[in-house]
C-alpha cells in the first residue's frame, strides 16, 4: 500500500526533527551546566576549609544579601527616592545563596540579627499600611503597602546600622517623596 505525503506533512516532520535537535542540544547544555556546578561546589568547599572563622563569617554574610526597594526601585545610597503618588510598596528582600555549601550553623551566622529582618525598619507609622511579603526557598520579602499617598507627601523611616551596612548605603534615614 502506498502512502501519500503532502507538503504539510513534510513541513511538520521537519519541525519535529528540528524540535528533537533543539531538545538534544538543550539536554547537552544542562548536563554541561550540571558538571560545571558540581566542579564549582567542590572548589568552593575546598576553599571554605582554608578560611579562618573571621573570614568564614564574612563569607557567610556575603551569601545572604538584603535589598530595600520602594515600588520596585532599590534605595539609592543617599536614602532618598521619588515615586509617583498613589500606592507605595516598601519591601525588604532577603536572598540566601549559600545553601549548597554552607552548614546551617554558618547560614544562621550570616543572616541579619533579630527575630525578623523586617524589624530593622524603624519608626514606620504603619497605621494605614498593610503588611505584605513573599516567601520562597531562596528569596523572601517583608514590607508594607499603602494605597493612597498624595502628591507632595513624604514618608520617612529609619533603618538599623546593621541593615545600613548590609545595604551599602550612606544613611539610616529613608525618605520617600511623592511626585
Secondary structure layout plus pairing:
Layout: H1 7-48, H2 53-62, E1 64-70, E2 73-74, E3 80-83, E4 86-96, H3 104-110, E5 121-122, E6 130-135, E7 139-149, E8 154-159, H4 161-167, E9 173-178
Parallel strand pairs: 3-9
Antiparallel strand pairs: 1-2, 1-4, 4-7, 5-8, 6-7, 8-9
Helix pairs in contact: 2-3
Query: Which regions have little confidence, pLDDT < 50, spanning 5+ residues?
Result: none
**What general form does the structure show?**
flat
Q: Helices and strands, in N-to-C order?
A: HHEEEEHEEEEHE
Report the end-to-end length measured between terminal Cα atoms.
77 Å
- Main structural class: alpha+beta
Give the integer mean of the pLDDT values: 88
Amino acid at each position: 500500500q502506498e502512502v501519500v505525503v503532502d507538503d504539510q506533512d513534510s513541513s511538520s516532520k521537519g519541525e519535529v526533527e528540528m524540535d528533537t535537535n533543539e531538545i538534544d542540544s538543550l539536554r547537552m547544555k544542562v548536563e554541561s551546566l550540571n558538571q560545571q556546578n558540581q566542579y564549582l561546589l567542590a572548589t568552593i568547599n575546598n576553599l571554605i576549609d582554608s578560611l579562618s572563622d573571621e573570614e568564614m563569617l564574612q563569607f557567610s554574610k556575603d551569601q545572604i544579601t538584603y535589598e530595600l526597594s520602594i515600588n520596585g526601585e532599590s534605595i539609592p545610597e543617599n536614602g532618598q527616592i521619588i515615586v509617583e503618588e498613589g500606592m507605595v510598596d516598601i519591601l525588604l528582600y532577603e536572598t540566601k545563596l549559600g545553601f549548597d555549601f554552607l552548614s546551617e550553623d554558618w547560614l544562621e551566622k550570616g543572616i541579619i540579627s533579630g527575630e525578623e529582618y523586617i524589624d530593622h525598619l524603624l519608626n514606620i507609622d504603619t497605621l494605614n499600611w498593610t503588611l505584605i511579603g513573599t516567601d520562597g526557598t531562596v528569596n523572601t520579602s517583608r514590607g508594607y503597602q499603602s494605597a493612597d499617598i498624595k502628591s507632595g507627601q513624604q514618608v520617612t523611616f529609619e533603618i538599623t546600622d546593621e541593615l545600613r551596612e548590609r545595604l551599602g548605603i550612606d544613611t539610616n534615614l529613608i525618605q520617600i517623596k511623592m511626585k
